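User: I'll paste a sequence; please echo it back and then give the predicted structure.

Assistant: Echoing your sequence first, then the prediction.
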Amino acid sequence: QVQVAESGGGLVQTGASLKLSCAASGGPFASFAMGWFRQAPGNEREFVAAISWSAGDTYYADSVKGRCTISGDRHKNSVFLRVDSVESEDTAVYYCAAADSLLQSLHQAQSTPYQSEGLYNYWGQGARVTVAS
């Protein structure tokens, strides 16, 4: 059974950087993409960033573009997120997600965007990040 686990987060000062790590394990399993989503109090879960292993492309939400970096290791099914210059609006529970390679052809045929939750099969429990002034 595939398990996704986030680490990092906690209390971050305004203007500082938040750093999160994630690894998917179990299986056999291989991912073709991994992503980060977040859910702020009272809000719906929203896309933050994603990385496509095959193309090496990265995708960012407008809210974090220019101050966010997603990186990772395909062979380890691991991904990292860094958001610089955090603000109170970055306070949220951050979720890591992995997309199973077995479904890559299906999603390519359907043109499922990397920003879509439907692309991802496996989800972590979430890591809480609180930005404090």
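The first strand starts at residue 3 and ends at 8. The chain has a mean pLDDT of 94.
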